[in-house]
Design a protein that fits this description.
150 residues; mainly alpha; two-stranded antiparallel sheet; 2 strands; 77% helix; rod-shaped
């Protein structure tokens, strides 16, 4: 079953049956009529600027589509770069975890044990320093006495 639309003619008259999705066909007296086609020319002159605006909008839309495609391409490029960066970061994390941190822990353990040894004996160093000073003084005194005896 074909659906039909009815339209009222602009200046009265009988309703015309429109084809599916079609436009109303104006009565013959409006096309030529007493004005000799002036109405048709007037309508046409009103439609022309609308067509120009529509064409301009189509051009703008096409331009925006191109810009949008460019942005999409740029975004895809950024996504690829981001994926590469993620892969590199993952490799760096694995290197840190498996190679650098164990070696750093070994170095830290070595420094800590050395520090603890020095810390334990630092008090004896002051005592040894005083002892050496006293020994030097005694040796100097004995050297003087020996020279006097000689």
């Amino acid at each position: 079953v074909k659906k039909e639309r009815f339209a009222r003619p602009p200046l009265g008259g009988n309703a015309k049956v429109l084809p599916q999705g079609g436009y109303p066909i104006p009565p013959a007296e409006l096309v030529v009529g007493p004005f000799g086609g002036e109405l048709l020319l007037a309508i046409s002159s009103m439609i022309d600027p609308l067509r120009e605006d529509f064409n301009s909008m189509k051009e703008d839309l096409n331009s925006m589509k191109k810009d949008l495609n460019s942005v999409k391409n740029d975004l895809n490029s950024v996504k690829e770069d981001m994926q590469e960066t993620k892969e590199r970061v993952k490799k760096v994390e694995l290197t840190l975890e498996n190679k650098v941190l164990p070696r750093l822990n070994t170095i830290e353990a070595c420094y800590i044990s050395t520090f603890n040894r020095y810390k334990e004996h630092v008090e004896t160093y002051d005592s040894m320093k005083q002892d050496i000073y006293i020994i030097k003084k005694v040796v100097a005194e004995h050297s003087e006495k020996l020279q006097k005896l000689a």
